[in-house]
Structure formats: structure tokens, C-alpha cells
Specification:
Blueprint (H helix, E strand, L loop, with lengths): L1 E6 L3 H10 L3 E6 L11 E4 L2 E4 L5 E2 L4 H11 L3 E2 L7 E4 L2 E4 L23 H8 L15 H9 L1 H16 L8 H4 L1 H9 L3 H11 L9 E4 L5 H9 L3 E3 L3 E7 L5 E7 L2 E7 L1 E4 L3 H8 L4 H8 L3 E12 L11 E3 L8 E5 L1 H4 L1 H6 L3 E8 L5 H4 L3 H16 L7 E12 L5 H12 L5 E3 L9 H17 L2
Parallel strand pairs: 1-2, 1-14, 2-10, 14-20
Antiparallel strand pairs: 3-4, 5-9, 6-9, 7-8, 11-12, 12-13, 15-18, 15-19, 16-17, 17-18
Helix pairs in contact: 1-9, 1-17, 2-9, 2-17, 4-5, 10-11, 11-16
């Protein structure tokens, strides 16, 4: 059996370890005290609550299939049915059904919602009559979609969803990397509205019953279950400091633990790290990979979790939560009403209402530099404006994710291709994680499993 060291114990690295089970002797190095990365479940007011990602994409199968394979199939659950809601123009306003990342398929359904002005609605409806030339080069989401639908639609329909998924901004994010379905239509040189309607009518891409699924007890159970099932040796509190090539195709990893330095050797190394951390380890091996990885910007975010007494709250919101466009000038970028959204949480704590508010987009470092108590007070004040006077929480906690979300800037797919090309020149080494082909849990699982297959193929 070959030996492989997986550096990084988030879901990408653990998915790789799962793929390697029975085929290699695997050791996973994780710098933190627990595996899981941004899939982490904590408690507030004695209630289990996710501090990072709270759901798994169900529209693509990788995450939910792996969860079922490691014994969590019965724990997968659907969220409550509710429309995607945007807090804009002074009210909570549901997006019409059928949108694709905020891009509407039925402009008439926007009329009367207050999401856009009458002029904005008319501008959206006019898209299918505009000439369309095939997109030949990558551009920002804003550059392409503002030309098709108008700037108001981008600001109030598309920006909120990009902020929720990427903590990014439409004028910086790559159309091809962040909105590949729309980019494919743009490259075909067709107006978007009729093409999207044809896709819906044809049932393509094939949709699942729900877009996302949660895990009873929190998504933090998912990486723990994968770690237990993959059969790998898991070393937590262990930070890789350097990589060295030794005789043949073998690698030496030097790490630091609480007990001192640790040196290990293996036939393969799989880097399941943020781009900037992978860049550090590859600096002496591939200047090109180091340069391109270092050039990927990252957004920092914070999650503010609050628990309210149902008996004492002045008002409790309905629905699953809301998104916020930056154009309205609020601190919040999203809120998730967890007790409404997940029935398991409501049944486990029927006397308490739990919600999460999130802040932080790319370029908002000053906001995230504020003390926790300031972020909590800002969140409470804005929630009162958005949904009503809820009163004071029983408990509140801020979880910070420093440089937690890679930004897929214009040309990102070409950058990833250059990184992959450079890494391919290093036998026995593979890369995976959120920096490459998607920031969601399903995409991370896919990159981890593919990287493991790459390692095995090179054996």
C-alpha cells in the first residue's frame, strides 16, 4: 500500500481520505483541535448550532451521497419551504420563484414586489429583445448582467445572493467561475431569459426535490463521521511547516505539534488547505503555483448567533431568513432563522428561538475589525428594523472566519488551470479545497475525491 499524507482536515481533506481508504496508508494532519474546517457545530444557550456552513448542496450529489455513505443518511433533513427573501427598499421582499442566482426567468413576476422600480422591471423584461453576441472572454458578473438586465437588477437581485454564497461583489466576481450556468448561455450568444425558460421547461439541469439539506444535530457531524469512517490516522493540533522532496517520488513533511516537531515521510502529499497556506508550502517547489495561489483574494466574515426566549420576545419572525444587498447600506449581509428553517432544532429547543446573522464581504475589513459586542449590537438593531422588535437575546456569540472564503475573480478558471498545470509537475502531489472549483460543501467533497484519484492514478 502506498502512503499518503493529507494536509488539512476540513471536508475536502477528509473526503480525500475517504476516497483513499483501503488503497493507501493515510495520515491526516489538522492544525486545529478538531477536524471539520468550516463545518463546525457549537452550542448557544445549551442548543446545538452550526457556526459555519449550515447545509449541504443537494442539487449536486457529492456531499449528500458521502453523508449517506458514512452513516448519516437518516440524519439528512430538508429545510422548511420558504421563498428566498431580500431585505431591500425598507421591507422583506420574496424573490419570485424560478430565479437562477437572482437572475429572474419571469420578469412579470417582479411587478408589484417592490424589489425593483417599474423602470427596473421594464429593463429586465427588455433583455430578451437585446442582441447577444457570444462571450469570448471572462468578465465580471456585473459587467455582463448589468448590460443585459440593468444595474438596478444586479444591485438588488443578484448582489444579495453573491454576498451570501461568496461574500463577494458582482463587479469583482468572475461570471464563468461564479455563475457557470449563466456563462454557458452567454458563450452561446443567446438572450438569457428565453434560454433560462427553455432550461426550466426541459428540466435541465435536473433538479433535486430541495436545493439544500441539513444534518440533524448540525453539519459539524458530517466531517466527524467521515473522519471516523475513512480509517485514516488523524493527527489534530499538528501544523505542517514545510515540504521536502526526497529520494525518488517520496515527500517529507515537517510539522509542529503541541509536543514539539514531527517529521513524516510518504509517497504522496495532498494539500487540502486554503490557497494562501498551500502557497507557503509550495514556494520552494513551484514558484508558478505559489504565485498563482497567493494571488487568490479571500474575504473574511463573521457569524453572529443569537438565542431568544419565545416567552419573552416581543416578536418572532416568519420564514427562513433573508439576504441583504450592499446598496442599502446595512451591516448585515444575511440572516437565517434557524428555528424556523430546521425542524430538528425547533423540536429540540421549543422554548427558544435561534437565528444567525452574518456580516462581511470582500473589502469590509474595517467592519470586521470591530469588537464582538459592537457586531452583536449592530445585528440586533438591524434585525429589529428588518423583522420587528424581538427584544434582547438570552445569549449571543460571534464566530469569526478570517480569510474564510476565496474570491473567484475575473480569470479565476484560467488561474486554476495554471495552478493545476504547475502542480502536475510535482509527482505525488495533489491539491483540493474551496479555492478551485466551488466554495460549497459539495464542490469541496468533489475536489477532495478527485485529488485522491489523481494520487492513486500516479501510483
Amino acid at each position: 500500500m502506498r502512503s499518503v499524507i493529507v494536509i488539512g482536515g476540513g471536508i475536502s481533506g477528509l473526503a480525500a481520505a475517504w476516497q483513499l481508504r483501503g488503497r493507501a496508508d493515510v495520515t491526516v494532519l489538522e492544525s486545529l483541535a478538531k477536524v471539520g474546517g468550516k463545518l463546525r457545530t457549537g452550542t448557544i444557550a445549551g442548543i446545538a448550532v452550526d457556526e459555519g456552513a449550515e447545509s449541504l448542496m443537494a442539487l449536486r450529489p457529492e456531499a449528500v451521497e458521502l453523508a449517506a455513505a458514512v452513516g448519516l443518511g437518516d440524519a439528512l433533513c430538508d429545510p422548511a419551504k420558504a421563498p428566498t427573501t431580500v431585505w431591500t427598499n425598507g421591507a422583506l421582499r420574496p424573490l419570485p420563484a424560478g430565479h437562477v442566482m437572482g437572475v429572474p426567468t419571469d420578469p412579470a413576476a417582479l411587478a408589484g414586489t417592490g424589489l425593483l422600480s417599474p423602470e427596473g422591471v421594464a429593463r429586465v423584461a427588455a433583455e430578451e429583445k437585446l442582441p447577444a453576441s457570444p462571450l469570448t472572454e471572462d468578465c465580471s458578473v456585473a459587467d455582463y448582467l448589468a448590460a443585459r438586465f440593468g444595474r438596478e437588477a444586479v444591485a438588488r437581485l443578484i448582489e444579495p445572493l453573491l454576498g451570501g454564497v461568496y461574500a463577494g461583489r458582482a463587479d469583482r466576481l468572475s461570471l464563468r467561475a461564479a455563475m457557470p450556468r449563466i456563462a454557458a448561455l452567454a458563450e452561446a450568444g443567446t438572450p438569457l431569459l428565453p434560454a433560462l425558460r427553455r432550461m426550466r421547461a426541459a428540466g435541465a439541469p435536473r433538479s433535486a426535490a430541495v436545493a439544500v439539506q441539513g444534518v440533524v444535530g448540525g453539519t459539524g457531524r458530517f466531517p466527524q463521521a467521515v473522519a471516523e469512517a475513512c480509517g485514516a490516522r488523524i493527527l489534530t493540533g499538528t501544523t505542517a511547516r514545510s515540504l521536502q522532496r526526497i529520494t525518488g517520488d517520496r515527500w517529507r513533511v515537517q510539522a509542529m505539534t503541541d509536543d514539539g516537531p514531527l517529521t513524516m515521510e510518504a509517497d504522496g502529499v495532498l494539500l487540502a488547505l486554503p490557497a494562501f497556506a498551500a502557497a507557503e508550502l509550495l514556494r520552494s517547489h513551484s514558484p508558478m503555483a505559489e504565485y498563482e495561489l497567493s494571488a487568490i483574494p479571500h474575504a473574511s466574515t463573521a457569524v453572529i448567533t443569537m438565542a431568544f426566549s419565545r416567552a419573552r420576545a416581543h416578536f418572532l419572525p416568519e420564514g427562513n431568513g433573508f439576504l441583504v444587498p450592499p446598496v442599502d447600506g446595512h451591516t448585515l449581509k444575511a440572516a437565517s432563522f434557524l428555528s424556523n428553517k430546521w425542524s430538528w432544532l425547533d423540536s429540540s429547543a421549543p422554548d427558544t428561538f435561534v437565528l444567525r446573522a452574518s456580516v462581511g464581504r470582500i473589502g469590509e475589513e474595517e467592519l470586521l475589525g470591530r469588537p464582538d459586542r459592537h457586531l452583536v449590537r449592530s445585528a440586533i438593531a438591524e434585525l429589529h428594523h428588518a423583522v420587528g422588535p424581538m427584544g434582547e437575546p438570552l445569549a449571543a456569540r460571534v464566530t469569526r472566519w478570517d480569510r474564510g472564503l476565496p474570491q473567484y475573480g475575473v480569470g479565476h478558471r484560467d488561474r486554476v488551470a495554471r495552478i493545476r498545470e504547475a502542480a502536475a509537475k510535482l509527482p505525488g502531489l495533489a491539491l483540493c479545497g474551496a479555492a478551485y472549483e466551488g466554495v460549497g460543501v459539495a464542490a469541496c467533497v468533489a475536489t477532495g475525491r478527485n485529488a485522491a484519484k489523481q494520487i492513486l492514478a500516479a501510483a
